[in-house]
Amino acid sequence: MAKKPVTFTLNGAERAAFADDGENLLQFLRRGVGDLGPKYGCGQGSCGACTVLVDGAPHLSCLMLAEAVAGRRVETVSGLARDGALHPLQEAFMDGFAAQCGYCTPGMLMAAKALLDRNPRPSRDEVVEAIGGNLCRCTGYAPIIEAILAAAERRATA
Amino acid sequence: MALHRGRGFAAINYPIGMNLGGDPSQALVHSNPEGKFTVALSSIDLGQGMKSVTRQIAAETLGVPVEDVYVDTADSDTGPHCMGSFASRGTHRVGNAVIEAAQEARAVMLEAAAEELEVDAGDLVTDGRGSIHVKGAPSRAITTMAACQAAQFRQGRTVSGRGIFLIPLSEVDPDTGEMTPVSCFAHAAMLVEVEVDDETGEVRVLDMQSAYEVGRALNPRLVEQQLVGGAWMGMSHAAWETTEPRYPDRAHGPVDFNSYLMPGPGDIAPHHISVLERPAPDGPFGGKGPGEMCANPVLPAVCNAVYDAVGVRIDELPVTPEKVLRGIRANGGARPRGRL
Amino acid sequence: MMEFRKEFFADDRDDDLVTIGQPVRRQDILGHVTGRSPFYDDHLFEGLLHIRCARAPHHHARIRRIDTSEAERMPGVVRVLTGRDVPRNLNTLLSLLDFGLDDEPILAETKTAYRGEPVAAVIAETEAQARDAVLKVRVDWEELPHVLDPEESLKPGAPVVCDVYPLNRFVYHGKYDHQKLRYGDVEAAFAAADHIVEGRYQMSPIEQAPIETCGAIAAPEVNDRYVCYTGTQGLFFSLGTAAKVLQMPSSRLHFVGGTVGGGFGGKVDSVHEPIAILGAMLTARPCKFAWDREEEMQVGAPRGAERWYIKDAVARDGRILARKFTGYFDAGAYTRLSSYAVIKSVGHLPGPYTIPNVSADVYCVYTNRTPSTAMRGFGITGVDFAIECHMDKVAETVGMNPIDLRILNAYRDGDMKAHRRVAKNCALVECCQVVADKAGVTLAAEARDATSLTGGGGARGELPAFTRTDDHGRVEGFDTGSYARKGGTAPASASPPRSPVPARAEGQRASAGGSMPPADAARSRAPAQPQPAPQAPVQPPASAAQVPPASERTAQPGAARRAGALRFSSLSGFRRR
Q: For residue B121, which residues of chain C lie inside 8 Å, CB to CB?
C-alpha cells in the first residue's frame, strides 16, 4: 500500500509521519503520530468527538484526508495545556463538572477554543452555535455551555 | 394557527440495585508506606463518577483527606470481583463494599496509632485532615502517615482491608409474583411545561421543575450531573429518539446522528431541581443511586403536558410532530385543557 | 440549577460528615480535560489487526452454506472466522447467573433470526481491508417467514424465532409462559368500581448512543495468557462470558477497563471480547473488534420496545382500587437480559402507589429484530411512562388535580406492596409537594398536609384477605429446575423450595423493617474480620453461609448439564420455585 510522507505542525512542534493512502486525519493522528487526544465517535462527521483545529479553524478529523494537513498547523486537546499550565477552558470544565465520561470532551474543548480564539466574549447563543456539531450523551449540555462562558469570563478578567 | 402552552406532571420511584439481589461487589483497600491509600475495584466508571464517589466513601470511612485516596479500577488481575456498573448498583453495592474494606484498614491504622501513643485504640478518633488523636485531647495526636509508617516498619502490620457487599438472591413465586425486590428506592416528581405549534405539530420543552429524593447526596455536584443529564435524556426519549420510527416495522432505522435525533445545546430547557435526602438504611452513608431514575418522570410528563396544551394523547413514543398533528386533526382542532 | 431541601427528613440524617456531601472534584477530571483518560482504544499495539463481521441481510433466514474462500484471498486478510471456530458457539448472558438457556450463537451457523446477525468475522491488516473482504463472504440464504410484532409473535402459527424457545416466549419457573403478579382480586374490584380507566401504551426502542462505540482489543500476553482492553460495563461479566465461550480457564484472561466513554446499559452484552480474544488466539496478533456508528445503531442491542395495557378500577374520590397490567417486552431474536427485566418490572408494579388489588401478566417475547438489552431505567422506564400517562387519565376521569391524585394514592411507610413486602423509606409525597410548591400549583388541604411517614400501615400494611390466582398460561413438559428446559421432570410445585434468603421467613414479611434481612444479629462473618465501626451501614448477612454445598448444587436437575463458566450467586434459587 502506498504511503505518503506528511509534514505538519502539531501543537507547535514540527512533525513528519507516513500516512496510508486514503487515511483520514483522525486515524493518522491516533495511530500514525500517536496523539490519542482526538476520539472516534462516528466516522461520519456527525458527532464532533474528533474535532481538531487546522490553522485555527475547527475541523472534523474523521472527514479530512491526512495529507490535507501537509504544511499546516494542527492543534489537538493534547496541546491545550502549555508549559504545565492548563488552558482556562480546561480549568472551567474541571470546576464546572462539565464532563462525565469524558469522551466528547477533547472535541468539545477544541470547538470551544476555536470560538474563544476568534471571539473572546461570546454570547450564550454564540457558544451554543459553536458546539452545535459536538454531541454529548451525558451532561445535557448545560454545564458545558456554562463552563465555556466561565472560561471566557476568566480570560477576560485575568 | 397558534402556539399552545401546557403543563404535565409525573411522579416515580426507582429500585436500587439488581432487583432480586445476588449481585455482589468487592473492594480491597491498602495503604502505602506514607499513609496514602489505594482502593482496588473492578467496577466501571462510564461517566457516572464511580471512581469519585468510592474515593469519597473510602476517605470518609478511613478518616483521611480525600487527596490521600486514589481509586484504581478496573484490572481483573488486581481488582476483586464486581458484578458491574448497571442497575443503579454502583454507589449502593460497591459503596458498601468499600466501607467494609476501609473499616478493616482503618482499624489496623488505629491499632498502630494506639500502640505508638500508648493508649487504647477505642479512644482514638480521626479528624479527616490527616491526624489521629485521643478523643477530647487533640494534643495527644499522631498523623495518619506516621501511624501507617509505624504499622509497616515498626509493628509489622499491613494497613489493609477487604470488603464485599451482597444481598442474597430472592426467589420469585410463579403464581403470585411474591419476591424481595431490592432494598431501597429513590423518588422523583417532575412538572414540565411545553409549547405546541398546532400548525407544525412541533413540541418544545420550555421548563422543567423537579424534586429528586436521592437518599444522601454523597457528592452534590455528581448528583447534579446525573439529574441534569438524565432529565435531558428523558426529554430526548420523549420527543426525539427511536431506533425504529415505524415500529414494529424495521424500516427507516437511523444509521448516524443526522437521522438519530437528540436535543442539541440549543434545544435544552431550564431545569429547576430540588434535592431531598431520606437516607437509605442500608445505603452507604444513606446514599441511593440517582443515575437511572432521573430520566423516567420526563417521558410521561411531556406526554401529559402535550395533552394539557392541545388535548392530544400521545400513548406511543416518541412524541413526533406527525402524531401531534394527526391528533389535532382527529379532534377537529387544538383543545387546550389548562388543568395544571 | 439545584437546591437542597434539607427541611425534609432532617430527623433521618446526621449531617456531621467530613468528605461525604462535599462537592469534591472528580478523580478522573484532569485526564478528561487533557485528553489523557485511557479509553480501551487508547492502547496502541504494534501490528494491530481489525475485525469486522459479515451480517445477515434478512429478518429471518436459513443458512444453506457459507463460503469464505474469496474473502480469505482478499488483500490484507489474515483469517476469516465462522461459527465452527468458536469453541462453544451458544451462550446466553445470564447463564453466569444460571438464569435461562443458552440461545444465541456467537457467529450464526445454521440460521439467522434478525437483520444484522453476524455469520462470519473477517480479520485483516486494516479496517478498510476488513470492510472490503466482508463484502466477499458468500452466504447461500433461504429466507424464512418472520414476525416483528410481539403480540403477533404469540399467536398460534407464528414463525418460530429462536428454536430454544419454540413458544416465542421465555418460560418462567418451568410453569408459565409469563411472569405473574397476583395480589387481591382485581375482577371483584372492577365489578364494584365507579370508574374503569383503560389504556394502551407503546414504549419505543431506543439506542443507548454512547459517544464511544462498543469494542475491545485483545492481544497475546506473556505466559500463555490474553489481555483484553474493553469498554464493558461489567468487567467480570465479559471475562466470564469470554471464558465460557472460548472454553478457557478464566485465569488465562486479563481484562482491563474501567474508563468508558458512556454506556447507559449498552455495554453489558459482552459481544466484542470473545471474538477479539478468539482472533488473538488464532492469529497470535493483537486484534480489535469494534462497532462503527451504523452497527452501534442497528446491530447493537437497543432498549427494547415495550407494550403495556393498563386497566384501573377507580372510586369517585380518586382512590385507585384495582390495577391490572398486561405487558409485552420485545426481546428481539434472543434473550440477552430481557427475561430479567420482566421480573424487575413485575417487582415494581403497580408503581409508587398503594393499590389493594393488583394483577399483572408480563411476557418476554421473541421477534425477528435486533436483540434488545439494558438501558438506563431497564425494566422500569417503559412501564413508568405507561403508569404516569395513565394516572393523568385517571385524574381527568375523576376531575382531580393530577398532583392531588398522586398524593392521595402514594405509598407510605408501612404499606404493603403488591410483591408482599412492607414499604419503608418512602418519599413520593414530599417530592410531589415540593414540585407543586415550586410550580405554583395549589394542592388540596389533605394533599398539602400528607407525609410519607404518616397515614401508612395499619390496614394498609395487611396482606389481602383473598388473592385470586389462576393457571392461565400454564405450560407443560418443562422442568422446574430450569426456566425453560423441555422434556425434564414434571413440575414439582408441591415440594417446598430450599430457602437461601432469610427475608422470606414468615415472621419478617410484615415487619416494620420491610424487605431487608435483619442486620448484625444474623451476621455470620469470617473470624479474621474486625467488628464494624458504629457508622457502618446496615448490611444483610454475609453470603457464605447460605450457599449450598457444591454437591447439592450439581444435584439439581439440569444443573449438571449447564455449561456456565462462572456462578456468581447463590444460584439455583433464581430459577427454582
A: none
| The pLDDT value given to residue B282 | 93
CATH assignment of B3-16+183-330? 3.30.365.10
Q: What's the mean pLDDT in C243-269?
A: 97
The pLDDT tens digits of the residues spanning B155-211 come to 999 999 999 999 888 889 999 999 988 779 999 999 999 999 999 999 999 999 999
Q: What are the beta bridge partners of residue C2?
A: B273
Give φ, ψ of B234 to 5 degrees. -65, -40
**What torsion do the CA atoms of C85, C87, C91, C94 make, to the nearest 10 degrees?**
-130
What's the pLDDT at C15?
79
Cα separation, B159 vs B110, whole angstroms: 10
Q: What pLDDT sits at residue C148?
A: 98
Q: Indicate which of A46, A103, A115, A124 best probes the interface with B, i.e. most B CBs within 10 Å of its own CB.
A: A46
pLDDT-derived band at C557, boundaries 50, 70, 90: very low
Which strand (E) or helix (H) includes residue C202? Answer: strand C195-203
pLDDT, position B5: 98
- Whether a cis peptide bond, with omega within 30° of 0, leads into C166 is no
Selected for mutation to probe chain C from B73, B76, B104, B273 (highest C CB count within 10 Å) is B76
Amino acid C367 reads: T
Query: Contact, B194 vs B35, CB < 8 A?
Result: no
Q: Provide, as residue numbers in chain A, all residues whose Cβ is less than 8 Å from the Cβ of B228.
A: 139-140, 142-143
Q: What is the pLDDT of residues C397-430, one digit of tens each?
A: 999 999 999 999 999 999 999 999 999 999 999 9
CA distance B237 to C205: 10
Domain B25-165 is found in CATH 3.30.365.10 = yes
Listed residue (C540, C463, C532) closest to C501, CA to CA: C540
- Which residues, at least 6 apart from B61, have a Cβ–Cβ distance to it below 8 Å? B98, B99, B102, B103, B106, C533, C535
Q: Which CATH fold would you assign to the domain A88-157?
A: DNA polymerase; domain 1 (1.10.150)
The rounded distance, in Å, linking the Cα atoms of A157 and A148 is 14
Chain-chain contact of A139 with B257 (C-beta, under 8 angstroms): no
Distance CA C479, CA C484 (A): 7
Q: In this structure, what C-alpha cell is assigned to residue B303?
A: 406526554
Question: Is C523 inside any structural domain?
Answer: no
ipTM here = 0.98
